[in-house]
Amino acid sequence: MAAPGAAHPGRPGAVVVRPANEVTWDDLAAVFGDRGYPATCWCQRQVLGDRVWYATPPEERARLLHEQTSCDDPDAPTTSGLVAFLDGEPAGWVAVGPRPSFRRLRGSPVPWTGRAAGDAQDKDDPDVWAVACFVVRAGFRGLGLTYDLARAAVDFARARGAAAVEGYPILDPSGAPITWGENSVGSVQALRAAGLEEVARPTVRRRVLRRDLRPRGA
Q: Would I find Transferase among this entry's keywords (predicted)?
């Protein structure tokens, strides 16, 4: 699977998004870098939950990501995310998978607060997927890669049989910029461009967006 990205006016070349098991670990590690929050988190806070995450050293978090993604194994039956390449250079990552696989979401009020009665959710429903985390490599930011990654995440979830896909982005009502650490949950704009629609506002700054991929009850 390789999803080509749409053109962006400030982008020097073409974007291709691939499942992480179809890329090398070296490529994925290059996206996370060797300093800053991504290089210490390794996309594990959403997976492990805060308590276990704080007790887990960064090198173990990296090992867990390697295991979850099945990098270097194109025949692996599962993987936990997608990697974007810009002109062949590894540039971005998105974590997408069944919502129950992200323990932090289960324990957070954000995905569940303010949902309409008809939108009540089973926290253990594996058919609802979540777009949980974005990372864009330093030097590749501001080029619209989160839009490519969000669209590819929806396509990937659909191809793997998901009934719906959700995201939980931050939107500052004052219009203040969101830092990269916070923006790892994604932007409202990128998720909307991927076809997700707002279904709840659990806090002043958080939104719940959702896209149904097949009729409910099907």
A: yes
C-alpha torsion angle, residues 35, 36, 42, 44 (rounded to 10): 150
Q: What is the pLDDT of residues 44-78, one digit of tens each?
A: 999 999 999 999 999 999 999 999 999 999 999 99
Determine the Cα–Cα distance for residues 61 and 94; give it in Å rounded to an integer: 16
The encoded tokens of residue 177 equal: 């910029």
Sign of the dihedral defined by the CA atoms of residues 73, 78, 80, 82, in that order: positive
Give the pair of three-digit tokens for residue 99: 């919502």
pLDDT digits (tens, 9 = 90+) for 30-42: 999 988 999 999 9
Interval 161-181: pLDDT, tens: 999 999 999 986 666 666 556
Model pTM score: 0.90
- Domains within the chain, CATH numbers bracketed: 15-212 (3.40.630.30)
Q: How far apart are CA 102 and CA 96, in angstroms?
A: 10
Query: Hey, what are 139's tokens?
Result: 């030097």
H or E stretch covering 190? helix 188-193
Q: CA-CA distances (angstroms) from residue 170 to 100, 184, 191? A: 21, 9, 11
> Considering only CA atoms, which of 180, 2, 16, 1 is closest in space to residue 88?
16
